[in-house]
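pls ignore typos typing on phone
4AD + seq
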Amino acid sequence: MGPLQIKNILQTSPENQSVTVKGWVRTKRESKNAIFIALNDGSTIHNIQAVAEPGQFSAELLSTVTTGSCLKITGQLVESQGSGQAVEVKIDDILVYGTADPESFPLQPKKHSLEFLREIAHLRPRTNTFSAILRIRHALAFAVHQYFNDGGFFYLHTPVITASDAEGAGEMFRVTTLDLNKLPRTEEGAINFKEDFFGREANLTVSGQLEGELGAMALSKIYTFGPTFRAENSNTTRHLAEFWMIEPEMAFFELEDNMNLAEDFVKKVITYALIHCKDDLNFLQNRLAEEDKNKPQNERSIPLLEKLSFVVDNPFERLTYTEAIEILLKSKPHKEKKFQYPVGWGIDLSSEHERYLVEKHFKKPVILTNYPKEIKSFYMKLDEDGKTVRAMDVLFPGIGEIIGGSQREEDYDKLLGRVKEVGIDPENLWWYLETRKFGTAPHSGFGLGFERLVLFVTGMSNIRDVIPFPRYPKSAEF
Ligand code: 4AD
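k done
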């Protein structure tokens, strides 16, 4: 299993036993009586303190022990003399694996702005904030797999390269091996995709749902968890061009079952983080409190752990789109013309409307259902009124939409009708439509944007800070 990690060493009782610690220097401090090196290996937010005596090592060696350098320290694990930690390492030997010239190493032991850290995404995992986020991200991903595994779901790997636009929004990245300077043409002058790698147009997937449904029609309960791509030019704090989506799909689930699953699922994975990421969450909570100090009282956020516990402990509010519109029409900002976008039945709710409902009106997560069919995808099951569909969006405070899902249209003729209505060529979806011909079943599913979940749990404010290497318009550097 390799060398002991700092996380484990910090929990070991000190008996002067010999230990080896490997990690990156966070700080070095020299006093009259001792030299203190704080080392971190990313296994925990906490550093281990290693202590040497003045004169024990040459000035030349010590000059290479600077913030960012990588060391192997051997020594004895002893009870700490200082108050900040229970144990420390009395150094016998130092091996410098790699130096980090202080003149050029951009991370110094001081607060850097998140914007600056985004420019050095190759190094930002070495900061407390980003290592905490990455550990929480890992824990949440693990909790997702555990939740579904325990619930009898199967992890289905849906393709990254697809020929269909599942969401019908046309925001896809093209995949091609054609020479862009010498495109093959048909007799009519169009690009001849028959000569392309797949013999047809292909794209990066915008959702694993359609293939997920094929899995659910055989295994009953599946989930996907994979990279998802959207070429929407949204330069917002909630959108990425490459993100990870979790999409469960369940045969024999109706809308109500779908909502129950979605609510239980998010609550359980957040609970997992509350139990297993205490140190990191505490660190982020303090970080937020520090930021809030400069804000007026009424703009300060609820402490992170309190916010997460609140979501876990309280039922989400459930209402229909139509009811939500009624609330918005009666709202103060609508009456005082404070909303930027108009409110009325049929509108696609904008984030200001969603935030009003969640943050001002209900003050808790909300599940909105039964949206007008015109603003939702073709695969959603039509309600009896013929106007709305069995859609459900889960809206979170500070985030907006975190989950989008629905009961699916299982009737072949109705689905074919919708496919044509929205202008999709049924030929392209023949395999999807066939599930409705052969043993169709009521079924439902949803998609959770993983980064939006990580955003909520970490309390960060920009989605670019909760994925190791964000992809967004004009940025694919790292
Ligand atoms: O609402 P969406 O578009 O739903 C689907 O893709 C369905 N196929 C899901 C399903 O029913 N299986 O996206 C689902 C979620 C959103 O609620 C949001 O959390 C996230 O995916 N999402 C994004 N996250 C980051 N960046 C983007 N550009 C996102 N677009 C959607």
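The first strand starts at residue 18 and ends at 30. The chain has 14 helices and 15 strands. more later
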